[in-house]
Amino acid sequence: MTATIEDRDAAVAQVEGLIRDIPDFPKPGIIFKDITPLLGDAEGFKTAVDLLAEDLQGPAPEYIVGTESRGFIFGAALAYRIGAGFIPVRKPGKLPSDVYACEYQLEYGTDALEVHRDALAHGARTLIVDDLLATGGTARATGDLLRRLGAEMLGYSFIIELGFSTPANT
């Protein structure tokens, strides 16, 4: 199920080197992490997915849950890689059946997510995958939705984790 990466530090550096910063997007003061160079580089994209697979420990997830929209990319690829199902968590109004919804805070506003009420069986083992962890609002909302479904949450997996500094730490 898991990949073996001989030189993890080199693999992480490869992936990090393919993510570019876009200042002041989508609002002034925000530094957007652009993953399109990573996605466009076949070896870099494969390495990113292999790193996610390598980090899996404990019981295998039955479902990978990806959050719209960039979580779909990595989540679906990881699900395929490990032989799990994939469940999309979407923005409001995008899913065609009965849904649970959850509002959450972004680092620059508010938003909401939805998941089909029949997306998985009670107790199914799940792993939440997204490209980026910033304030944790999206991840928390996705976790709240899975708890409403009765899922067993194995954890979270991200390509990028933002660190914030306060004036005392700068």
TrEMBL record:
Enzyme class, first EC level, given as a word: transferase
Coiled-coil ranges (or none): none
Gene3D superfamilies, alphabetized: 3.40.50.2020
Subcellular location: Cytoplasm
Enzyme Commission number(s): 2.4.2.7
Gene Ontology CC: cytoplasm
InterPro entries, A to Z: Ade_phspho_trans, PRTase-like, PRTase_dom, UPRTase/APRTase
Molecular function in Gene Ontology: adenine binding; adenine phosphoribosyltransferase activity; AMP binding
Alphabetized UniProt keyword annotations: Cytoplasm, Glycosyltransferase, Purine salvage, Transferase
Pfam family, one: Pribosyltran
Primary location: cytoplasm
Domain Phosphoribosyltransferase: 60-154
Pathway: Purine metabolism; AMP biosynthesis via salvage pathway; AMP from adenine: step 1/1
Reactions catalysed according to its record: AMP + diphosphate = 5-phospho-alpha-D-ribose 1-diphosphate + adenine
GO BP, sorted A to Z: adenine salvage; AMP salvage; purine ribonucleoside salvage
HAMAP family membership: Aden_phosphoribosyltr (MF_00004)
Assembly and binders: Homodimer.
Function text: Catalyzes a salvage reaction resulting in the formation of AMP, that is energically less costly than de novo synthesis.
Family note: Belongs to the purine/pyrimidine phosphoribosyltransferase family.
Protein name, per record: Adenine phosphoribosyltransferase
Species of provenance: Spiribacter curvatus
Annotated gene: apt
